[in-house]
Amino acid sequence: MDKEDLFNYITESRNNFAIEAFKSWIDSSERYYGFVLSNIDKIRSKFRGAKSEDDLVDVIFELEVVSHILSNEGYDVEYEKYGCNKIGRSPDLSVFSASGTEFNVEVKRIREGVLGVKFKSIVEDIVKQIEPIPSKLAFSFVVDDLGLDEEFLNRFLPTKEIIVDFIKEKIQLEDPQLPFDETVDYELPNLGGEMSLILSKPKGKLTCEETSYHGGSFPIFFTQKESNKFGDAIFEKIGQMIPGVINVLVIASDSSTHEKEDLQDAIISIHQLMRDQNETFFIKKGFEGISDFSSQAANLSGVLFKSTWSSLSNPCNYLWNNNAAYHKIPDEIQTVLTGLGKHRRPDS
To answer: How far is Cα 337 from Cα 70, in angstroms, rounded to an integer?
Structure first.
């Protein structure tokens, strides 16, 4: 099966920005193409099981980790080697290096928080109503205060249609008079000056059949409970770690509110709960108690966090090494893991 047919068979013509990344990995790497071909039905099943866009991005991130590992010479990946163990699920990936080192990788993605999702949904609804308007203009939004909260959303949602009408009015006004390559900004109504509309007339705009959307700056809805997501991920995944081998939990986030400091805070909080002998807490998390958690936690060699702030040239990855682990992560593997997200040269 050639690469194009393989991609189409697995994705079944679903359209998503993340799926295009998956296609690029297949096209640029023979090793990755071979991995996907060998696991074709398993991967296709995961795509089919992804009911929402977030589910789909979860699957793509798992496959991104594979792409990164295979881009390192001397490393091979086996997909779901263990199947289901006696506890339940087992690690997603088993990695084998030419030096003889084996390690397992379990992948978890932290999703955008509820407030961020609500804000994005409101903006997307506004954009859908504005884009079809024929004009030479482009529009974007700017939020002056990035630290907004739920109270702002409570004002934003009811005024959505007023904002749509306001933007339509300004497009009608500015389309004939705004000079090319210039911009004009307006405070959006009923939002206390906290959010503005930017209209521009790009000289190189290809079509006047619609008004282009150019994004903008958006608020970050901190809840002050971001570390809980990391703690929950550790409690959820720790039972999937296989004894007798290096096990790494890789956590990604495209949430604007989750950062490496939140992972650090989660680890500190877990240690404090153990020192406080809070047996009830660990029982509620599904363990027999602190001793049971501590025993299972020793199978976790470390946690890698890949942040939304990563870029191809400057990945922002943080690796926490578990000093109490039975099997530590060698320096060579730490280098491979922390390189996740770096630009890689396609192989032949």
So the answer is: 12
CA distances from 101 to 3, 68, 205, 246, 328 (A): 31, 17, 54, 9, 12
Q: How far apart are CA 214 and CA 200, in angstroms?
A: 10
The maximal CA–CA distance of the chain, rounded, in angstroms, is 72
Query: What is the residue whose two structure tokens read 């509820």?
Result: 114
Phi, psi at residue 123, to the nearest 5°?
-60, -45
What Cα–Cα distance (Å) separates residue 206 from each residue in 78, 147, 182, 209? 46, 36, 17, 9
pLDDT digits (tens, 9 = 90+) for 307-328: 654 444 445 688 999 999 999 9
Cα–Cα distances in angstroms (integers) from residue 245 to residues 233, 328, 346, in the given order: 20, 9, 30
DSSP string, 225-251: -HHHHHHHHHHHHGGGPPTTSEEEEEE
Sheet holding 102-110, edge to edge: 75-79, 93-97, 102-110, 246-253, 302-306, 317-321
| Angle, CA of 27, 33 and 34, to the nearest 5° | 160
Q: Tokens standing for 336?
A: 């491979």
Backbone angles phi, psi at 338, to 5 degrees: -70, -10
Which SS3 state, helix, strand or coil, does residue 39 take? coil
Q: Please, are residues 316 and 251 in contact by the beta-carbon 8 Å criterion?
A: no
Structure tokens at 99: 């030096």
Angle at the Cα of 89 from the Cα atoms of 84 and 91, rounded to 5 degrees:
100
Sorted by where each begins, the domain ranges of the chain are: 1-65, 72-111+223-348, 114-217
pLDDT for 262-296, tens place per residue? 888 889 999 999 999 999 999 988 999 999 999 99
- The CA distance from 205 to 211, in Å, is 10
Residue 45 tokens read as 């099943």
Q: What is the DSSP letter of 84?
A: B
C-alpha distances (whole Å) from 226 to each of 21, 199, 242, 264 are 28, 35, 28, 11
Q: Please report the pLDDT score of residue 346 as a whole number.
A: 38
- Please name the residue ranges forming H helices in 79-156: 114-130, 150-156
